[in-house]
Amino acid sequence: MTQVYRAPTQPAVRSGAPRYRASYLLTQPTLRVWVLAVGLLIFYFALSPSTMNFGSLNLLTENALPLAWVAAGQMAVVTAAQIDLSVGSVMSLSTAIAATQMGSSGVDVFATILVTVLIGAALGAVNGYFVAYRGMSAFIVTIATWSMIDGLALLVLPSAGGAVPNGFANVINTTSPVSFGAIALVVSLLIWMWVRTTAGFMRLRAVGSSPEKAHWAGVAERRTTLMAFVFSGFAAACAGLVLAGITESGDPNIGTSYILNGLATAVIGGVSLFGGSGSFAGVVGGAMVLTVVNDVVFALGLNSYLEPAIVGGILAVAVLTTGLGSQGSIIQGVDQ
């Protein structure tokens, strides 16, 4: 009788369970960036023990807030597989408006804030219209609007200066007992926990993953792309207002450095440059990383010109470990 060879059975593996849990966790973008942020913060405190206090953490969150908010706008646009290079000019324009138009009364402050964020959203809508409805390249469109908005900022405030009301600056620079930056970041994260579960965000991811499949799934891809740009302009305006409060003045050129830093923050936070994925929790972690890097460079007594090189190295590692080429289909489950 012929014997049938039977291969030894393998132990059952639970579906979806990572084989190497530690390795799996370390490859998660949000977790990875927060581990890096905490590690850098511990290293900084080891270099400067005198700074290890609650006040330093308050200052850290205050400085990270405008970067996190402008990067949140970048996250929305990049998740839709687009790019917005005009965010820095929107920030500059916002500081210029705040420093020249904001009155001292509560009504004036509120009105200026409202008008400024509406202007930011409107400028984002202009970008979104030409990209989504006219089929133009986001790179070209936002470079053009970057230049035009810079001109508007210089028209409002020709050079750095002006002043925001003391009351507004005092709120933004509050550090006791908890900074405004910390409160704003926590509230933003709580809002994100809700946003990430909404059909709107699922549509955004679907458009970034595959516009064609999103269209056939019933997603209004053009409107979704438009709203991503609107949010980017809104977020940049909010970041500019915070920056005006921190500096207590305006500057028509202050937002320039936030263009690439905002994009770097988003990518370090795990946002895929191919679109389809992004997390504001990771973006906040990315903002913390870039903010602490500046402190570490200073504590080590290094030349400040080395900071962009260090940030570039972190960015390169983030891009390599995020796995830009692997995108799963996320069309299923989109609320039509």
Secondary-structure blueprint of this entry?
Elements (H helix, E strand, L loop, with lengths): L20 H6 L2 H19 L6 H26 L7 H15 L4 H28 L4 H19 L9 H7 L7 H16 L3 H11 L1 H6 L4 H27 L8 H13 L11 H20 L6 H17 L14
Helix pairs in contact: 2-13, 3-8, 3-11, 3-12, 3-13, 4-5, 4-6, 4-11, 4-12, 5-6, 5-11, 7-11, 9-11, 12-13, 12-14, 13-14
Describe the protein.
There is one protein chain. With 336 residues, this protein is mainly alpha-helical. It has one domain: ABC transporter involved in vitamin B12 uptake, BtuC. The chain contains 14 helices and no strands. The longest helix has 28 residues, at 106-133. It is globular. Residues 4-20 and 324-336 have low confidence and may be disordered.
CATH class: Mainly Alpha
Uncertain regions: pLDDT < 50 for 5+ in a row?
4-20, 324-336
The radius of gyration is 22 Å
End-to-end CA span: 61 Å
User: What structural category arises from helix and sheet content?
Assistant: mainly alpha
State mean pLDDT (0 to 100 scale): 86
Whole-number count of domains: 1
Helical content (DSSP H or I, runs of 4+): 55-70%
In short:
This protein is mainly alpha-helical and 336 residues long. It is 68% helix and 0% strand.
Structure characteristics:
single chain, 336 residues, ABC transporter involved in vitamin B12 uptake, BtuC
